[in-house]
Amino acid sequence: MPQLRFHQLLLLRNSRRPPSFPFSSSTKTTPILSLFGSTPRSVTMAAYSTVAEAPRLLFRQLFEKESSTYTYLLADVGHPDKPAVLVDPVDKTVDRDLTLVKELGLKLIYALNTHVHADHVTGTGRIKGKMPGVKSVICKSSIAKADLLVEHGDNIYFGNLFLEVRATPGHTVGCVTYVTGDGSDQPHPRMAFTGDALLIRGCGRTDFQGGSSHQLYQSVHSQIFSLPKDTLLYPAHDYKGFTVTTVGEEILHNPRLTKDEVSSEIFLFYFLFFGYWRKCCSFAL
Ligand SMILES: N[C@@H](CCC(=O)N[C@@H](CSS)C(=O)NCC(=O)O)C(=O)O
């Protein structure tokens, strides 16, 4: 990357905003949540960092088997403080996750939630009880309480690495996908933490309060399938033993989201209806 002046770096940052979400009318600018002082300093440090401060991602995928939920640990271990974030911590596995954070010498700064269902957010409260310095993060439109309420287009920094917030409603109103930053100093390939919006070869159910299959289809196509094909996708759940997929793979093989929207909705309706009808029958037997 050629050496750029500071104002050019800011422009570069703004040109990397995610595609605007089809249901949002706002065209706001991109605020930065930075661990280290003001926004310009974070951006400059990322571009001119020394070898000792070069971002280096530590990544762990953690599983809670009762609810088949994934929690993700990410840290910038190239930074002296080794700042870390947990995505979708589960209450039952908080002790395991915090022990791991401690063993790896990380400084947990954020507990992020992709949405406001009980299988996810309850872990954050427990973490804050045990580590009061950790800040909880959730999307503003989820109408939940948190230390930081983020919106589509925001960047969440941990050291010199960051996660971009993309609104992906449909499973719930306030669902977001967190995507690793776009840039030569950020992880390649990119990684997206899709919550319950996109599951491997599936998607989150849309029959709970605030669910909308139309919105979910639009969210996945505009905010997830628009990412580079080699982007690694990490869902909040898997019920079949899968751990990771890619954008390219899901565009080709996801049975719920690869057809045109109307046939996908019909498929989703029949899948959910007959799936739960079969479950009810098996309980009755
Ligand atoms: N299909 C699951 C049932 C658990 C479930 O409903 N999971 C949710 C996410 S937690 S709210 C979901 O959206 N599942 C997707 C689906 O297709 O049902 C199971 O097999 O146990």
Automatic annotation (TrEMBL):
One Pfam family named in its UniProt record: Lactamase_B
InterPro entries cross-referenced by the UniProt entry: Metallo-B-lactamas (IPR001279), Mito_Persulfide_Diox (IPR051682), POD-like_MBL-fold (IPR044528), RibonucZ/Hydroxyglut_hydro (IPR036866)
GO CC annotation, single: mitochondrion
Cofactor(s) this protein cannot do without: Fe(2+)
UniProt GO MF annotations: metal ion binding; sulfur dioxygenase activity
Gene Ontology annotations of biological process type: glutathione metabolic process; hydrogen sulfide metabolic process
Membership in a protein family: Belongs to the metallo-beta-lactamase superfamily. Glyoxalase II family.
The protein, known as: persulfide dioxygenase
Organism: Cocos nucifera (Coconut palm)
Organism ancestry: Eukaryota, Viridiplantae, Streptophyta, Embryophyta, Tracheophyta
